[in-house]
Amino acid sequence: MHNNIDTLFTHLWQDYIAITPSAEKVHQLLGKGDDIINDHIALRTFNLEKVALDKLAAHFLALGYEEKGQYNFEQKKLKAKHFEHPDDTKPKVFISELLVEEFSPELQAIVKNMVEQVEEDAVTADNFLYSGTHWQVSSEDYQTLLAESEYAAWMSAWGYRANHFTVSVNYLTGYSELSEVNDALKNAGFVLNTSGGEIKGGEDVCLAQSSTMADKMDVQFSDKKVAIPSCFYEFAQRYKMADGKIYTGFVAASADKIFESTNAM
Ligand code: OOG
Ligand code: NI
């Protein structure tokens, strides 16, 4: 486990931009050289004991993060929790896990085989959250997973790493609304996720979100190299609740669509 939050996020960011070349371009476009404040990052895993959500969460709890919210995604067969640090300038963390037992025996067999290859010690090691895959899968296995769960297929190819970072629109200078950010992104040629509309949520649920579609990168499977979706960038604008405090949670109906940012276009 890391003992320093900023070091952990620096490693997560370096790993993320290595497979998400558009992320640095987004920073240049929106940040114009200024620092970008990240609202949150997201991580994915399977609900198998060795690598379950709580194992990933332990890395953040050790750094002072606290569990704040729980979410269910019935159709996608996922559960998620979000974590916040008392220092609200630290990014929030959204961790989801796939409910493996709800899938076909074929999917379960491939996923269990992957997770068996993860060393017990690797899960508590400093670098676990940006350690990528710990297994070998064939491009055929990838396709088998993809037919049932895009999430499972993504995990098989990319493993443990930040699935996205999220620009906090509230802290951007030069933009006051998410729609303006989206316009700037589209004008610069970025492709946005339109599932559920370009903007998911809004002031009524105290959180408006949009995201790019994931970059495509080559993955070396056990048999061959294939170009597949890697990671994306998200944009979030938060609003005040009736009590005047800014909303810090997530919105399941919106998150459900954000997951689709790693779908193939
Ligand atoms: C997480 C999708 C949900 C959000 O902000 O609602 C999410 C994922 O794609 O792993 O990030
Ligand atoms: Ni997100």
Automatic annotation (TrEMBL):
Keywords: Dioxygenase, Iron, Oxidoreductase
Database matches in CDD domains: VOC_like
Molecular function GO terms recorded: dioxygenase activity
InterPro entries: HGLS
EC number: 1.13.11.93
Superkingdom of the source species: Bacteria
Coiled-coil residue spans: none
Cofactor: Fe(2+)
Similarity field: Belongs to the 2-oxoadipate dioxygenase/decarboxylase family.
Name used for this protein in its record: 2-oxoadipate dioxygenase/decarboxylase
Organism: Neptunicella marina
